[in-house]
Amino acid sequence: MFSQTMYELGTKKSTIRTIFEYGRKRAAEVGEDNIYDYSLGNPNVPAPAYIKQAIFDILNEEEPCAVHGYTIAPGLVSVREKLADSVNRRFQTNFAAKNFFITGGAAGAITITFKALSEAGDEFITFAPFFPEYKCFVEAAGAKLVVVPPQPADFQIDFTEFEKRISAETKAVIVNSPNNPSGAVYSEKTIKKLTDIMKKKEKEYGHPIFLISDEPYREIAYDNIKVPYLPHYYADTIVCYSYSKSFSLPGERIGYIIVPDEAASFEKIYGAIAGAARVLTHVNAPSLFQRVIARCCDMPSDISTYRQNGTLLYNGLIAAGFKCIKPQGAFYLFPEALEADDYAFCKKAQKFDLLLVPGTDFGCPGHFRASYCIKTSTIEKSLPVFKKLAESYGIGKRS
Amino acid sequence: MFSQTMYELGTKKSTIRTIFEYGRKRAAEVGEDNIYDYSLGNPNVPAPAYIKQAIFDILNEEEPCAVHGYTIAPGLVSVREKLADSVNRRFQTNFAAKNFFITGGAAGAITITFKALSEAGDEFITFAPFFPEYKCFVEAAGAKLVVVPPQPADFQIDFTEFEKRISAETKAVIVNSPNNPSGAVYSEKTIKKLTDIMKKKEKEYGHPIFLISDEPYREIAYDNIKVPYLPHYYADTIVCYSYSKSFSLPGERIGYIIVPDEAASFEKIYGAIAGAARVLTHVNAPSLFQRVIARCCDMPSDISTYRQNGTLLYNGLIAAGFKCIKPQGAFYLFPEALEADDYAFCKKAQKFDLLLVPGTDFGCPGHFRASYCIKTSTIEKSLPVFKKLAESYGIGKRS
C-alpha cells in the first residue's frame, strides 16, 4: 500500500531528535533556563544585517517577475559568475559560472553529487565521526557507505584504516572539515597525505576516485587556523558548500556544488549532476536567495559568538575533568564520555538536565557531542552542572 | 565513472527547452518584438503586492533567528494550521496541521508522494495530454507510468481506455486539472465517474488506489467554472498544491501535500511521505516563504491577465481557422495542428517566428501547446501571423 522503507525512514526518530523533543518537554516542566540543551546544530546567531538589507534592495530594485521566477536549473548565470569571482578571489582559483551548480544547501549538494556519481556496486568512504545522514543519502543513491574508524587522539585521519578500506569499488571519499561532530579541522598535512594516497589509488585502479568536500562549516574556524581548499590539492575534487551556517540561513536551503574543469570528465559529471538534480526535483534553488547570496558572497561571517562559546565550554569541561580536543572549527565539542557506554553516559547527563548526543550516533562510541550554538548564558550556567556530573563519576572531586 | 542514466537525464534537452533556446537566439537576430514565443509555462504576472509586503513585515516583526532557521521537516505547525484553516474555509473540509506537509512546490510534492507510495511492480496511471516530467518522476520512484490516451473532443477522460488500463498493479491515478497542456478543467461529472470506477476497483482488488490531485493551476479557472475539490469525492485522495502559479512564485519552490484523515492508513502514508522527503533531501520547505504563504493564503490570485490573454488568443485562433476547446483554466491552449505531424507543423510555425510546442511531447499527437502567459501585446501582434500560417495550409483564405 506504501513504501515500507520510506515509512521507516520517515518515522524512526533519530537520537538527536528524541533528545531534543525530551528537552522541549522538560523545559515546559522545569523552565527554559534550567535545561541545558546541547543537542541541535541549529545556528543561534541571527543572519547578518546585510542579508535583510539585500532582500529589501532586491525587492525594491529588481524586476519583480524575475525575482520570484523560475531560474535555469543550475542557477542564474549572473549569480554563478559572482560566486565564481568571489571564490576565485579568496582561493586563487579559476572557476567560472559553468563550474557552479546552485543547490538547496549542502544536503541538496551532497545528495545530488552522490546520485550523479553512483553506479551499481559503488562504495563511498567517509571518516568517523561523521554526519549520520550520509548513510541514508548514499544508500538512497544505490551505493554503500564505508566508514573508516576514528582517530580520537586528534580526530585527523587514521590512514592505516583508510588504506584497508579504499578499493577498486571506491567511487568517492567524503570529507567534512571543519567537522561535525568533532570540531576538528583537517590539517594541510592530513589533506596532503589523503590526496597522495588517492592519487596513487587512482593510478592503480585506472579510474578516478572523487574527493567530495562537504564544507558547510568552512567559514567557522578559529585562531586563524588554515582550512585547506581541497581543489588545490586534488584534481578530482567536488566542493559542496552551504550558506546555512556562514550566513545563518539553514531554513532557506541555499548552497552550491563546484565541479572544477580539472575534474575527470568535467562535462559528463556536470551533466550527471543536472540529471540527478532533475530526478530529485531540485527544479531550481530558491530564486530570491540566489540573488541574496550573489549580493552578499563577499561579506564576512560573524563567528565571534561561536568562538566565545567554544572557548567557554572547552575551558569549563577541561576544568571539570573532561578530555577533549580544543575547538578548531564548526560549533561542536566532542569530548570523551565518562564511561565506556556513551548512551548510558548521556542518559545519566540527562538526569542533570544536560542534553548531550552519544558519539555512537556519529560512528564514534565513547564520546559525546555538545553543540555550543546556544546562548552563552546557558553555557555559563551549565558549567557547574558538568562539574557535578563529572563528580558523580568520581572525577575532579576535592579529596 | 558516473551514472550514465543521470547524465542522459541531465543533458538530453526537452523539446520545450530547445524551442525556447532557439527563440532566445532568434530574438537576438530579429528583435524581441518580432518573435512570438509561446513555449514556456512561466508566469508573466508578477507576484502580488501583498507578497512583498508580507516579506517586509516578516523581516521587520518576526524573530530573525527563527525566520531563516531550520523548521521541522513537514513545515512549521503554525503555518500548517493557517493553511488548514484557509482550505477548510474555502472547501468545507476538516483538515488540521497534521494533514499538511509543506514542500518545494508541486514538483516536490508529487515526487515525494510517488516515492512514498511506490513498491516494486507498481503502476501510476495518468491521462494524456500530461506534464511530461511525470514519467521521469514516476520512474525515479521505481514505478511505471501508464498513460490513458486523450479524448480530444473535450479533453475530459476516455473511460473505456481508462478501464482497460487500471489493474491490480495500479498504485495511484494522477490527475491535473485545470490541465497543462489542454487548458481543460475536469467537470464534476468526469470526477464522479472517475472516482466511481476507482471505488469499484479498490473493492475488486482489495487494496487502496490513491488519487493524486496535482493542482498548481487550481486558482486559474475562468467564467466561474467549478473545479471540483477531490477529497470530497474520494477518500484516498492526496492533494499536491503549489503557489508557483497562484502567487507567481515558481522560483521560490513552495507548495504542500495534503493527506486527509480519511485516506487509507493515513498515519502510515504521512510517515512514508516524511521518509521520502528525507531521502530526497527536502530538509524543509524554504522557511521565509513558509511564513509568507501563512500570511497570504487567504488572498485572491489575480488571473485577469491570463483571462484576457486566453480569450484574445482563442478568438484569434478560431478566426484564423484553428480548432480548439475554449480556455477553461491554466494558461495554455491546445489546438489541433494543421497537419497530422505536429512536429512538422511546429517546425513550419517556427518559420513564421511562432514558437509552439508539439502535442506529442504531452502524449497527444496532432496538437500543439501555446502558453499564453506572455505579453498581451505579443499575442495581439501574433494573430495576423497565425492567420498567415493557417493560410499557408489553405485554411481561411478568401476565395
TrEMBL record, chains A, B:
Gene3D superfamilies: Aspartate Aminotransferase, domain 1 (3.90.1150.10), Type I PLP-dependent aspartate aminotransferase-like (Major domain) (3.40.640.10). Residues 36-381 form the Aminotransferase class I/classII large domain. Keywords: Aminotransferase, Transferase. Coiled coil: none annotated. The keyword Transferase applies. GO terms for molecular function: L-aspartate:2-oxoglutarate aminotransferase activity. Its cofactor is pyridoxal 5'-phosphate. It is an enzyme of class 2 (transferase). SUPFAM superfamilies: PLP-dependent transferases. InterPro entries: Aminotransferase_I/II_large (IPR004839), NHTrfase_class1_PyrdxlP-BS (IPR004838), PyrdxlP-dep_Trfase (IPR015424), PyrdxlP-dep_Trfase_major (IPR015421), PyrdxlP-dep_Trfase_small (IPR015422). Its EC number is 2.6.1.-. Belongs to the class-I pyridoxal-phosphate-dependent aminotransferase family. PANTHER family: ASPARTATE AMINOTRANSFERASE YHDR-RELATED (PTHR42691). This is Aminotransferase. It comes from Pectinatus haikarae.
